[in-house]
């Protein structure tokens, strides 16, 4: 757990189901009830068919590193202390146009600065792991398969 980081509002009705999913150890992505396309981040109206109908679908938690970066200071104070660390973008197995930003860790409880950045490669298969950041917020992180 990283102390002092800004955390999301998990009670926002637009994406509360995403955070309910992470607390349950699942990646859930919003799916249109009209055209059935997945969309992320969540929003009230489908950008493809303009339907207001929607549901949440459990994903496999598998994906591939699409891109990554290594942030260095100046950063928010809580992140200054642990930099450099990695930030990866993962495209999901179910739909590569759905991409989540997260961190690559060595294991579910691992730190986001424990992976040597020279060992991160685009195209690497990863799976979701879950780290509790507060009583309400569980973060999705990723480990190599
Ligand atoms: Zn749609």
The main β sheet shows up as: 5 strands, antiparallel
How many domains? The number is 1
Low-confidence stretches: none
Average pLDDT over all residues: 95
Model description:
The protein has helices at 16-23, 77-80; strands at 28-32, 38-39, 54-58, 62-69, 87-92, 95-102, 125-132, 138-144. It has one domain. The chain is 8% helix and 34% strand. The longest helix is centred in the N-terminal third of the chain and has 8 residues, at 16-23. The strands form two sheets. A five-stranded antiparallel β-sheet has the order 6-5-4-7-8. The protein is mainly beta and 145 residues long. It binds zinc ion.
Give a brief rundown of this model.
The protein is mostly beta strands. The protein has helices at residues 16-23, 77-80, and strands at 28-32, 38-39, 54-58, 62-69, 87-92, 95-102, 125-132, 138-144.
Q: How do the helices and strands line up, and which of them pair or pack?
A:
Blueprint: H1 16-23, E1 28-32, E2 38-39, E3 54-58, E4 62-69, H2 77-80, E5 87-92, E6 95-102, E7 125-132, E8 138-144
Antiparallel strand pairs: 1-2, 1-3, 4-5, 4-7, 5-6, 7-8
Bound molecules: zinc ion (ZN).
Residues 32, 34-35, 37, 46, 48-49, 51 line the site of zinc ion.
Name the features.
2 helices, 3-stranded antiparallel β-sheet, 145 residues, mainly beta, binds zinc ion, 34% strand
């Amino acid at each position: 757990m990283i102390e002092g980081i800004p955390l999301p509002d998990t009670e926002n009705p637009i994406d509360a189901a995403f955070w309910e999913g992470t607390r349950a150890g699942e990646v859930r992505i919003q799916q249109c009830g009209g055209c059935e396309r997945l969309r992320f981040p969540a929003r009230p109206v489908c950008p493809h068919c303009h339907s207001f109908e929607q549901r949440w679908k459990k994903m496999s938690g598998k994906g591939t590193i699409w891109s990554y970066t290594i942030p260095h200071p100046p950063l928010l104070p809580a992140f200054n202390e642990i930099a450099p660390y990695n930030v990866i973008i993962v495209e999901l197995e179910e739909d590569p146009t759905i991409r989540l930003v997260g961190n690559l860790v060595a294991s579910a409880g691992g730190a986001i600065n424990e992976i040597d950045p020279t060992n991160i490669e685009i195209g690497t298969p990863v799976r979701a792991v879950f780290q509790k950041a507060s009583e309400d917020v569980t973060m999705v992180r990723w480990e190599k398969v």
